[in-house]
Amino acid sequence: MSVNSNKKEYEGVMTYETSSSNEIEKQQTSNQYTRTINEIVTDGDLVTLGNHTYRRGDLLRAFNADVVPTSNQRQFANPIPLGLASFSFSCLVLSLVNANVRGVTENKFLISTFMFFGGAIELFAGLLCFVTGDTYAMTVFSSFGGFWICFGCINTDQFHSISAYGDDTKMLQNVTGFFLAGWVVFTFLMLMCTLKSTWGLFLLLFTLDLTFLFLCIGNFIGNNNVRMAGGYFGILSSCCGWYSLYCAVANDQNTYFPLRATVMPNFPTV
What we know:
With 270 residues, this protein is mostly helical. The chain is 66% helix and 4% strand.
């Protein structure tokens, strides 16, 4: 009897100890899930929650991923092909005139092209690049949109930009050279920012810089042959623009002949 009694008492102790340990584990688990953050501290881009510090952008992405499904996020169209189309078309037709192709030397017919398709549309494409966060494309397209608008205004009689110089053609050539020299510098700076992009974009700006350079020199020295050389380089630049445009819009879903843009060495990959 004493043996059985001791056994029952031992079992009772074990049962009590087991139930006590379960309660302790439940209490620890409850405390673990009911822990509260006592302090939230922000320091610039850093957010401290309790004893842990996070980047503000990481927290926003984490919360957005939980609240807004990725498939419902708004997608913006790529405005770069629009800017390339505007530039390539305007550059082609002007360069054909500068090269005196088929004896054409007057560009009055193209003023509307310069003002609207080359100017307004390209400026609009640059502003759309601002929305998509592409600083480089915004700068290039908006600036050249301004160039086409300026060029259209210069050749519009109502602005008297050319007639104001009267018979002083030398001064007109010099001031035109100044105008083109500024674009030589700007295009060169933008060219330096394409050394890790695609060959199409690099060659577009390289030949465009040569276009401005030859047109600038041709105006300073009054040599039409040099200006014609600038026109031919402009034709090459527009062809590079057409190529880049097609690479940007052609894919397996819309054509049997897609082209992939050829990237330069050290092209950044994500």
